[in-house]
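HUMAN:
Just now I want nothing more than another pair of eyes on a protein record. I would be glad if you read both lines and explained how they fit together. I have put the entry right below:
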Amino acid sequence: MSRSTARYAAGGFLGAQLLLSGVLGLLVGDRAWLGLPAAAAVVLGVGVLGVTALGLRRMARADDSQVLDPRTGADLAPPLPRWALPVMVIPPVLAVVLAAAVSLAGR
């Protein structure tokens, strides 16, 4: 396993763990993973996952990862549109925030 693969795997695990434990902490009124306040864990989890996603996007578009057409030399992988990352990240984050807000409003 390369260093970058391990780094992105650790970032994904850490972000998901913080986000999920933070949401569960908000739902049951308890602290999150490692004794963090639940709201702080949610914010940190979203931040870590965002940084990890941006890093993966940058790595995927690096010059040494391009697949070139041997006949024309053109890049075979279409560029990732600017709207793709927000479309992939915003709905799950909104779902978590809405679930936490509904849970806190029901108390």
About this structure: The CA atoms of residues 30 and 60 lie 38 Å apart.
